[in-house]
Structure prediction request, 324 residues.
Amino acid sequence: MLKKIARSVAWILVACAASTAGAQYPDKVITMIVPFAGGGPTDTIARILAQAMSAALKQRIVIENVGGAGGTIGAARVAQSAPDGYTLLVHHIGHSVASALYRKLPYDPIADFEPIGLINDGAQTFVARDDFPASNFKEYLDYIKANKDRVNMANAGIGSASHLCGLLFMSSIETEVMTIPYKGTGPAMNDLLGGAVDIMCDQSANAISHIKSGKIKVYAVTLPNRLASLRDVPTAAEAGLAGFSISVWHALYAPKDTPQPIIEQLTVALQTALKDANLKQRYSDLGAEAVSENRATPEALTRQLKSEIDRWEPIIKKIKGYAG
Ligand code: ASP
Prediction:
């Protein structure tokens, strides 16, 4: 109730400001909240987007990393922010699974946000420290099953993409290993590089440079098709986990009740940014694909969010018992 009143007051203030200022949005710096630590995949996707959207909006966009609790702390921050177009959220697939994983969420993933549009689809990779004793996906699975009490798996907290992938993985091989949560896979990757953790299912956007420089091992990708940027790496489905498939899609949101003219302006800026050749190339080099214009819309994002909630809820109910 209090939240509703605060929102209405904020909306009235925003509406008044907008009418006195005319169509001047954005006339100050925009903050894009990334609900994970800096240096990780969502941070990378968001920074590339922010640069291109900032050119389209002719306004600076700064990234603020608000990591923790699998992305839910940063999402809560945006849900509680003024709906004035100056605080936005870049979140991923985790936004559609959090309500199935948390008994109590401090926000409603649909009702508390204005969707702006999808950003990209992306692969995850099954990776390991460089001296992990397996040279292909089958050996990787066999080793993990035989050493389940010794192997540990890093993730970015409950509800993150790496956590979701880990849950699906452990239930697929009916083997539970110890998980180690971080505020993002940026810091988790540092520990994988240093050998402090054994394995991770991380987005290619974060892992690819370390895979290419040979600092970590890669065994499979989570999409139904191989990645152009990692041609030799099999899909998990073709290498032994039939039907295994996760795409880590990112999307852009504003707080609920952000005025529609602002949402429309942001949607156009998002679409312009996603057509930028430099952005497309940088995403593609990372194993991520910018979405087409018709998916970078509030309607498409609402559809995606609802269908992903419907897809994951029953799966999570079944596999939730695996390590958090
Ligand atoms: N997106 C997270 C990050 O940027 C990683 C994850 O969800 O697994 O750190």
